[in-house]
Amino acid sequence: MKPLFYSKDSGHPDDIYHYRPGKPWVKTAELFFIQPEGKHLRVENKNVNCLFNNLTRELFDVHYNHFIQFLNIDFSPIAVQERNYELLVSEQEFLIQKIITSWIYYYTINNLEVKVQRDDFTHPYMTDYILSLLDKKYGIDTLASLALGAHLLRMNLDDYCNTVKGRRTYYNR
Q: Could you tell me if 167 and 128 are in contact, meaning their C-beta atoms sit under 8 angstroms apart?
């Protein structure tokens, strides 16, 4: 298999996009049920269920792990009004799996070369991926929910709030 090119820019350690080559390789076959389905590849577990175009088990494993090396969500606790907020490990796993499989799906369904790009991690879709989880856990547009969302995505709170407002307007049309 030829080496895949992802980016010359490694990003900054405080950015949502930051290359960390030391991240342990995830054995996707242990994390997901992966099986061919016709000319497609079905990848599923309790968090995701995707049918990928033009993808083998081996390529899914490679792409998933390259995304892991670049995706730099801040899962550290955050204090809001003298109370700490954070996600459980299971919620963190859900987000990582949802984000990565969604981006791989986007590339494969559109017959594009799978790339890991900073633009993907700063796209408004990233807010979509975490919004329902935070809404359920901490309430819709509460200070805790908004502050934690901004923190997770390493965004300025005002920018994150504007993105949330825009996404809610978009989906409520």
A: yes
Strand 33-37 vs strand 78-80: parallel, antiparallel, or unpaired? Answer: unpaired
Q: Which two tokens stand for residue 28?
A: 């996707």
pLDDT tens column, 109-158: 999 999 999 999 999 999 999 999 999 999 999 999 999 999 999 999 99
CA distance 71 to 88: 18
Q: Cα(117)–Cα(145) distance, rounded to whole angstroms?
A: 26
Would you give the DSSP letter of residue 21?
T
Task: Confirm if 86 and 80 have CB atoms less than 8 A apart.
Answer: no
**∠ Cα 94 97 98 (to 5°):** 80
Q: CB count, 10 Å around CB of 29? A: 11
The Cα 133–Cα 86 span in angstroms is 12
Global pTM exceeds 0.85? yes
Angle CA 163–169–160, to nearest 5: 10
Helix, strand, or coil (residue 95): helix
